[in-house]
Design brief:
Layout: H1 6-28, E1 39-42, E2 53-60, E3 63-68, E4 71-74, E5 79-81, E6 92-99, E7 102-107, E8 110-114, E9 119-122, E10 135-143, E11 146-154, E12 160-167, E13 172-174, E14 187-197, E15 200-208, E16 217-223, E17 228-231, E18 240-249, E19 252-259, E20 264-270, E21 275-278, E22 289-298, E23 301-309, E24 315-322, E25 327-330, E26 341-350, E27 353-361, E28 366-373
Antiparallel strand pairs: 1-28, 2-3, 3-4, 4-5, 6-7, 7-8, 8-9, 10-11, 11-12, 12-13, 14-15, 15-16, 16-17, 18-19, 19-20, 20-21, 22-23, 23-24, 24-25, 26-27, 27-28
C-alpha cells in the first residue's frame, strides 16, 4: 500500500482545524444587521413660477410618474420634467400607472394619458351646470383598459355631489354614484379611490357642511362591478374626513385623513365586511396633524404621508408606517430653506422602496418636494 506523504497529512489536519474554527466562529459571532431604510429628500425639478406635486405612481424602482402643476418622471437615478399634453392646463391631482407605457392622470381640467413616450389629452364627459367644471381628485387603474376616477360636481344651489367616472380603454363615462347631502347646500366629496380589479373598488371622502353647519362626516363608497353603494364608516369627532385609500385585496384596505378642529390623524381599516378606526399617532399635541395619502404593498406594510404644525405653527412633513399591528411615526426630513412643508402623495413598490411628493413654501411661491425611502 502506498502511504500518503507526511506533509499531506499535516496539511489535511491544518485544514480540518481551520474549518472547525471557522465554523465555531460563525456559530458564535452575531450576524451583521443591515441598516433600516430611511426617508431622504432627493433633488426634484421645478419651474421658476412655483411648482407643487400632488400625486405619484411607481411601477418599479426605476419608473415613477408624479403630477401637479407639472409632470415629472423618475428613471431610478433622477427626476426630470416631462412635457404635458399639448394644450394641457395641468392642475393634475392624481396619477395611476400600470406599466412604463401606460399612466392616467386626472385633475381640475379633465384627464391625460401616457403611452410610454408622450402625454395626450383624453376627453371626459360634461357633468352638471356649465359654470362649474367637474373636479376629479383621484384615479386608480388596474390595467390600460380599466380605470376609475372620483371627485365632485356642482348640482346647483350650492350642492356638490359625488362624481365617479370609468375608463374602458377608449372613453371615459360617468357612472351613477350615491350622495348623502343631496337636498341642501352642502357637499359630497370623494378624494381617494383604490381598485384591486375591474369589479371591486373603494372610494373615500367626506360629506356635510350646509348653511346650518352640519358636521363633516366620512364618506366611503364601494364598487361591486355593477353599482356604487355607500358603506357605513366610523367618525372620531364632529369633523372627520378621509383623503386617501389603498387596498391590497377585497378584504384589506386602509384609508387615511384627519378629524376634529385641531386636526388629528385619522386611520380606518377594512377587513372585508366593516370599516373600523385604527389608533394612529400624532406628532404634537394641540397642533394640526393630517395624513393625505397612503400606499400599501401588503396588509402588513403601508406608508402614509401628510404634515403637522410644529411649535411655530409651521407645517412639517409627517410620515407614518404600518407593520400590520401598529402605526408609528417615521423620521422624515423637511426642506430647511422653506417654510411650510407637506407631502400629498406616496407610492411604494415594496416594503423598502417608496417615493413621496409634495411641496415646500418659499416667501413668494411653493416648490416641489420629493422624498425617497430605501
Amino acid at each position: 500500500m502506498r502511504l500518503l506523504p507526511r506533509n499531506f497529512l499535516r496539511l489535511s489536519l491544518s485544514v480540518a482545524l481551520v474549518s472547525l474554527a471557522t465554523g465555531f466562529l460563525s456559530a458564535t459571532m452575531p450576524t451583521p444587521v443591515e441598516a433600516s431604510p430611511s426617508w431622504s429628500i432627493v433633488p426634484s425639478p421645478y419651474t421658476n413660477e412655483g411648482s407643487a406635486l400632488g400625486s405619484v405612481s411607481c411601477v418599479s424602482t426605476t419608473f415613477c410618474m408624479a403630477v401637479g402643476n407639472l409632470i415629472a418622471s423618475w428613471n431610478g437615478t433622477s427626476w426630470s420634467i416631462v412635457p404635458g399634453a399639448p394644450g394641457s392646463q395641468l392642475g393634475l391631482g392624481s396619477v395611476s400607472c400600470v406599466s412604463t407605457s401606460f399612466c392616467m392622470a386626472v385633475g381640475s381640467y379633465g384627464a391625460e394619458s401616457w403611452n410610454g413616450s408622450t402625454w395626450s389629452m383624453v376627453p371626459t364627459p360634461p357633468v352638471g351646470t356649465p359654470y362649474y367644471a367637474p373636479v376629479l381628485n383621484s384615479v386608480s387603474c388596474v390595467s390600460a383598459t380599466s380605470c376609475v376616477a372620483v371627485g365632485e360636481w356642482l348640482a346647483g344651489s350650492g350642492t356638490f355631489l359625488t362624481l365617479i367616472e370609468s375608463w374602458n380603454g377608449t372613453t371615459w363615462s360617468v357612472v351613477p354614484s350615491p350622495s348623502l347631502a343631496s337636498n341642501f347646500k352642502g357637499f359630497n366629496d370623494l378624494g381617494g379611490v383604490s381598485c384591486v380589479s375591474p369589479t371591486w373598488c373603494q372610494a373615500v371622502g367626506n360629506w356635510g357642511g350646509d348653511v346650518n353647519y352640519l358636521p363633516v362626516r366620512t364618506l366611503i363608497e364601494s364598487w361591486n362591478g355593477s353599482t356604487w353603494s355607500i358603506v357605513p364608516s366610523p367618525n372620531r369627532t364632529r369633523t372627520s374626513s378621509l383623503s386617501g385609500v389603498s387596498c391590497t385585496s377585497l378584504s384589506s384596505c386602509i384609508a387615511v385623513g384627519y378629524h376634529s378642529g385641531k386636526a388629528r390623524t385619522l386611520v380606518e381599516s377594512w377587513n372585508g365586511s366593516t370599516w373600523s378606526v385604527v389608533r394612529s399617532p400624532n406628532k404634537r399635541r394641540q397642533r394640526d396633524d393630517a395624513l393625505n395619502a397612503i400606499s400599501c404593498v401588503s396588509p402588513t406594510s403601508c406608508q402614509a404621508v401628510g404634515e403637522y404644525d410644529n411649535h411655530n405653527q409651521i407645517a412639517r412633513t409627517l410620515i407614518e408606517a404600518w407593520n400590520g399591528e401598529t402605526w408609528t411615526i417615521t423620521p422624515s426630513p423637511s426642506n430647511p430653506t422653506g417654510n411650510d412643508n407637506e407631502l400629498d402623495g406616496v407610492s411604494c413598490v415594496s416594503a423598502s422602496s417608496c417615493q413621496a411628493v409634495g411641496e415646500y413654501g418659499l416667501p413668494a411661491y411653493f416648490q416641489t418636494l420629493i422624498e425617497s425611502y430605501g
